[in-house]
Amino acid sequence: MEKKTWTQLWLDYKKTKTSEDLSFLTEIILHGFSEGHPVIQNTLSELQLGIGKILGAEPAVKPADECEGKADRGLVIIKDEELPEEGYKLKRTGQESVMLSASTEKGVLYGTFCLLRKLSLAEDLEDPDICTAPENPLRMLNHWDNMDGSIERGYSGRSFFFNNGEIIVNERTRDYARLIASIGINAVVINNVNVFGEATELITGRYAEPLRKMSEIFAGYGIRLFLSLNFASPIELGNLPSCDPLDPSVIRWWEEQMRTVFDNIPNLGGFLVKADSEGRPGPFTYGRNQAEGANMLAKVIKPYGGLVIWRCFVYNCRQDWRDRKTDRARAGYDNFHEMDGQFDENVILQIKNGPMDFQIREPVSPLFGGMLHTNEMLEVQIAQEYTGQQIDLCYLIPMFKEILSFRTYVKEQEDTVADIISGRTFGNRNTGIATVANTGDDSNWTGHDLAAANLYGFGRLAWDMNLTPEEIAKEWISQTYTLSPDAAKNVLWMLLHSREIYEDYTSPLGIGWMVNPSNHYGPSVNGYEYDRWGTYHRADHLGVGVDRTDKGTGYAQQYNEPNASMYNDPQTCPEELLLFFHRVLYRTRLKSGKTLIQHIYDSHFEGYEKAQELKKRWESIRDELPEDVYPRVLERLDRQISNAREWCDQVNSYFYRISGIEDEKGRTIY
Ligand code: GCU
Q1: DSSP secondary structure of 160-174
Q2: pLDDT(126) > 90
């Protein structure tokens, strides 16, 4: 079999021209931390590699007692109990010394990656004076990898965790851990939320050894391993007649099983659970509520310090399309908000950013700000299932920033999504952010080379939600490629415009969907219109959109004021979400003065045009790009252009045919 190789992405350290002589950094003095600790060992080898490559000189570690009292030269790593758990301080302490302090080994590791990043970016070390700690307690990747090696909604090859029913632990496991630790990720779920077949057995002794090995590699980089759990395990593994969470024999079964799994994998962080969702079993099957299901598991794993991460993606996926009263958007809130205050302390509700499902534009889920006494975590998706599938370019960090800065008005201050998931709003600790990951075993990890910016950006943003999409993109570009300022500007332009471009040529003004059912790539305006998934645009000859106001499904009323009123009124509803909340006639004028139908035509032609501009910009910097990267991305841009054309023509033709209204500019519509 062909041997797989892979790149080091942004960790491919290159020799960098620094503004001053930094050779003193090759002397590393370690105070208060043991060289033998796995995290410190990894930190030191990262310094060895990074400093070695960036400065071109191998560093050496000096034991602290050898240089007692004269820490005036070198990179001095010391313990400072005052600092927060994962935080660190980086300070220029003299002409020839930089001090890195932290209270834990993890802090040292993060501080080291920060220093290496600064060096790679050739940033000034004159006065770094950085004192930082992550805003989000949990910064997590959710992999939807199956044990046969396939990846649900995976667009960059096969799994590097599983193949053919077995677990893979090899050099790539370590490289993966290094990569994600370098951007501050501290938790990983390796298997798909839809748990079936062999994956159900991950909690049995069968996979104990490789899982323990993997969890130890992860722990060496400050990462906790989590597993997705099959709620029906008592039936499937234990041969019990039910998995009713209140049945004593079911509870007993879980207690024994959990003892075994935590004995086998002491570093295990806990479980991610998709229950009562899209055909997965759950507490509803037994007339129990979501809290009863989650708390049962939470109590069982509490003695091991485990967390239950319970997903809120619970909705009726067997809706009759004729039924206009049921609104899928309402489901998350309707199923969970009344349970506020009933979940145990070690349960976290994981909530998708929007009420539907990772569309290019959705409002923020009203569950943020809809629960006051419940641990909450945000779930986003860099896998781009509905946003281009790592074929079309879509840098998602601008979208994530919008979500994080959304004010929920649950309090007068500190009420944004960022405040809630960081624990600032309610003073809780079990909170954070997760993304459905976009990696696979492709040599460049993410299929589309530029999609790695989403992985990098997610981690950086999860750590510091004040960073801007532009800052993050610039960091990623210059650590990944060696480009002239002009060329770098072109890549930056591509990233920063990509979300808008994708939105322009796909479904308009927040209505979503219009995709090919099942594979979710490419247009099919009515693909979901007469189906059971609760995802309708309701277009007819006069207008389009779903009335989610108080006169319609009442979804807008799930928000706190003033958001509820803002969304309820088409005059104040943000225009990009107009068709999500309102049914609008084609001849209605938008704020731009254009009619709705003209806006649809214009934005689609524009999106298609700009998709072509992406390619032009890429072609213009050909000479500066690595030989393998240039054609690989070019091929994706070509596919994006044909996809954009298909979307543009199908959406415009659909609305032209149904409305009979001409394009003012007389362009070709079919
Ligand atoms: C989407 C996706 C599924 C996935 C589900 C989930 O519906 O298409 O593949 O299982 O989300 O988040 O659970």
Answers
A1: SSEETTEE--SHHHH
A2: no
In contact, 124 and 237? CB cutoff 8 Å: no
- Ligand 1 touching residue 150 (CB < 6 A): no
Block residue for tokens 């994600």: 180
CATH of region 138-467? 3.20.20.80
Sketch the domain layout of the chain as residue ranges.
9-132, 138-467, 504-546+583-659
Residue 295 tokens, joined:
């708390």
CA of 163 to the centre of ligand 1 (A): 21
Nearest Cα to Cα of residue 190 among 175, 164, 168, 209: 168
Least confident of 63-67, 163-167, 256-260, 647-651: 63-67
Phi/psi at 590 (nearest 5 deg)?
-90, 180
The strand pairing partners of 595, in sequence order, are: 589
DSSP codes, 575-632: GGGHHHH--EETT-B-TTS-BHHHHHHHHHHHHHHHHHHHHHHHHHTGGGS-TTHHHH
Task: Return d(Cα 118, Cα 112) in angstroms, integer.
Answer: 10
Residue given tokens 């700690």 in the structure block: 133
Q: How far is the CA of 358 from the centre of ligand 1 (A)?
A: 9
Q: Is the distance from the beta carbon of residue 194 to the nearest atom of ligand 1 less than 6 Å?
A: yes
Cis peptide before 562 (omega within 30 of 0): yes
Residue 297 per-residue DSSP state: H
What tokens does 26 get? 């090759």
pLDDT at 2: 64
Half-sphere exposure of 478 (CA within 13 A, CB side): 18
CA-proximal residue: ligand 1, atom 13 (nearest): 193
**Residue 88 host element (H or E):** strand 88-94
DSSP state of 523: B
> What pLDDT is attached to residue 1?
57
* The ligand 1 atom nearest the CA atom of 520: 8
* Nearest atom in ligand 1 to 193's CA: 13
Per DSSP, what are the bridge partners of residue 97? 74, 94
Q: What is the mean pLDDT of the chain?
A: 96
Asked if residues 378 and 417 have their Cβ atoms less than 8 Å apart, the reply is yes
381-405 residues labelled b (16+ CB within 10 A) or e (exposed): bbbbbbbbbbbbbbbbbbbbbbbbe
Q: Output the pLDDT for position 71.
A: 67
Integer Cα distance of 39 and 61 in angstroms? 15
Q: How confident is the model at residue 67 (pLDDT cuts 50, 70, 90)?
A: low
Class for the domain spanning 504-546+583-659: alpha beta
Q: Which residues are catalytic?
A: 278, 357, 385
CATH architecture of 9-132: 2-Layer Sandwich (3.30)
For the stretch 337-396, pLDDT in tens is: 999 999 999 999 999 999 999 999 999 999 999 999 999 999 999 999 999 999 999 999
Instruction: Report CA-CA distances (Å) from 335 to 47, 98, 291, 339.
Output: 49, 53, 10, 8
Relative to beta strand 432-436, strand 138-145 is parallel
Strands, E assignment, 116-161:
130-132, 138-145
pLDDT at 124: 84
Confidence of residue 505 (pLDDT cuts 50, 70, 90): very high
Answer left, alpha or beta for residue 661, where phi above 0 means left and psi between -120 and 50 means alpha: beta
Mean pLDDT value of segment 312-317: 94
94 Cβ neighbours under 8 A, 6+ residues apart: 72, 73
> Using CA atoms, how far apart are residues 439 and 384, in angstroms rounded to an integer?
11
